[in-house]
Amino acid sequence: MIFQNVIWAITLTGMGLVALGFIYAVTQAGRPADAAEAARAHRTSTTLRRALFAALLLLGIGIAWASLRPFPIPAQHAPLQAAQVVDVVGHQWTWDVSQTHLMAGEPVEFRVTASDVNHGFAIYAPDGRIVIQTQAMPGFTNKILYTFLTPGTYRIMCLEYCGVAHNGMTAELDVAARGDKS
Amino acid sequence: MSSLELYPQDEKLPRGEHVAFNLYMITALLLFVVMMLLGLTMRMTQADWTPVQAAMFYKVMTMHGAGMVGTMSLASTAVMWFFLRKYVSLHLWAFMSNYVLFMLGALCIIWAVFVGDFASAWTFLYPLPVHSMGLWSNGAAALFMVGYLLIGVGMLLFYLDAAAAIIHRFGNLGRGLGLQWLFGGEIDPNHPKAVVASTMVIIANSLGILAGAVVLVMCLINAYDPEVALNALVVKNLIYWFGHMIINATIYMGVIAVYELLPRYTGKPYGVSRPFLWSWAASTLFVIIVFPHHLLMDYAEPRWMLVMGQIISYAAGFPVFLVTAYGVLTNIHHSGLRWTMPSMLAVLALFGWAAGIVPAIIDGTIGVNRVMHNTQWVPGHFHFYLLLGVLPMVLTLLYHVVGSRRRAPVNSGTDRAGLLLYVVGGISFCMVFLYAGHMSVARRFSTHLPEWLPYDQAGSIAAMVLILGMLVFATRIIVGLLKAPIDADPAHPAG
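^ Those are the sequences you sent over. The predicted structure of the assembly is below.
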């Protein structure tokens, strides 16, 4: 399943739950409670808030743990030992890419920097979805480690606003199937 | 605890304050409409419906961003001032100095953008302001930054006055924030929520503005002496510290209107509690240190800062969901709430804030940010909590004030129709952004790929509906604010 679609579904669920909470309270807003009802509602509300706190705390810790181990960004100060290495330099408004023909199924190390201003180095898959990105900054080299799973033509786009021709700053990567020498 | 009387005497505006409040709010409403029209121009350009050239598009984008952030700050500052002045002694000169400096700063920014062709986005990431490829001069960049500095100085003046007033009344800022009751002791039920929230904003936003001032001065020096080279990553950290703080402060200032006004419409007391104080104490810390979540794709950033950015983004959700949103829901539950414009807008505001931070928190995950950063997901979530959260907070107060002039809450069919347009347009507008973001549509592009156009067209139509609603609000409120003579009601004389 496409990762962005999972994120979209989770987001809709979260926003939907918030909306349900509001809809429930709004539909109950018009009828004032008597003293006994109010006391009961207060007790229920306190219990529910504690349960929600515990649930959100566990959820937050669980997601943080799962999403940060292993750390999703490769080591920046150690060799990445990738079979393919590509040096990328962003300029206003072109990409200088040392190698545009790559092999699927083998890790690629992208060393990304910029010569002038901040750029955003994003790789779009043939289906039009982003697969990975990092910032291209003058004075720094950000390293990505990515393995292309599907052969095809991938598009590089600049995702950090860098001036008037920002949206035209594109390049292409040809990713061949493993063993395809054409 | 604030009064449950709908229009208490201590909220009346004497002549000078009345003029100041009207100046702030009428300026803000007009600017909101203009900035929304600029936003619509951008969406229609992306939809290929208007022939705006790239150079103009990016100028409009810069103006829209700077203008919206500034206007949100201006309006929410007026919300904070309106309520805080009931509890501490604020000086009108400080409030008005902020307005004058804001207007001077705004003029500098408008001149820099539309005369000087400056188009570096409101975030002015170094070194773009001084590396325009000949499209604008260093002078235009400097004027833009001087505009920001003027606005920042105005805000600091107001905060200093407010801080002095809170310290004078409560002893120190910690006591204003209610820290003395975090671990025990009997909480003063009359301790105002407005003071707690204002204290938090004063502490956190002053730091953010100071970070902004430092980076602006650094960039100004660099503009005229390039030998003084700057570290792009350090500058980016300072810019996002400032940028994140200043826009988030608008929520914390705006929400004071909900705290103060909603209980009057529900008729249920909404006092200060220990969870409330804990949530504001925690938010003070979180909002100051959460800014690295804007730099999750800067792999050169120290790892601990990236981890902190993600974890604090998650933690920041607790006070919003479990205290403020939950508190509002329990306050309206079985309350006999009177559904009028202020109460509807207050509930909408809390919904917009709570729902809008869901995609924001999710995007604060490094693994998610890797595919969502700088897509339309980002404007999707911040438009959600600004358009459907902060702006309705401001409108809550404005409709309340207009109602107070005639001693009855506003609730006409026209205003309700405006609200319907605003809600339908606003939710659609933001959800289109979010949907497009998950489809990897880039933000800040003047020209879009053919396959992206349907989202832009849907977004443009939604924006038009939203703006229609906003036009209704702006017209009705401006007329209401101007029409009501100060001394119209003998029971409410000008002081």
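Chain A has two helices and nine strands. The mean pLDDT of chain A is 94.

Shout if you want it in another format.
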